[in-house]
Design brief:
mainly beta; Hypothetical Protein Aq_1857, Chain: A; three-stranded mixed beta sheet; HesB-like_dom_sf; 4 iron, 4 sulfur cluster binding
């Protein structure tokens, strides 16, 4: 049985701050081939599609397409603020290695 990704309250709060739902959009998390480790995350505001998994909280939505879902099983989607900047991050227990920037990984 596949465990869906989890979204932290901090990530949903950031989506609320930028008003994604008010614009009729959700945060899309996708996995594509490429990057320095083989796969890379694509994170963007987008419309939900009919085959997406929709994760909801605080009136906001995070969506994952059916092709990306197996790569993100039991992952944690978060929002972090550091001295070098603020961004959505993914802690992926399925990744065997990742690059230094955290946007690409291998399995």
């Amino acid at each position: 049985m596949q465990l869906p990704p989890k979204v932290t309250d901090r990530a949903f709060a950031r989506l609320a701050e930028i008003g994604a739902a008010g614009q009729g959009q959700a945060l899309r998390i996708a996995v594509e081939g490429g990057g320095c480790s083989g796969f890379q995350y694509e994170i963007e505001l987008d419309d939900a599609k009919t085959d997406d998994l929709v994760l909801e909280g605080q009136g906001e939505k995070v969506v994952v397409d059916s092709v990306s879902l197996p790569f993100l099983e039991n992952a944690v989607i978060d929002f972090t603020e550091e001295l070098i900047g603020a961004r959505f991050t993914i802690e992926n227990p399925n990744a065997t290695s990742s690059c230094g920037c955290g946007t690409s990984f291998s399995m």
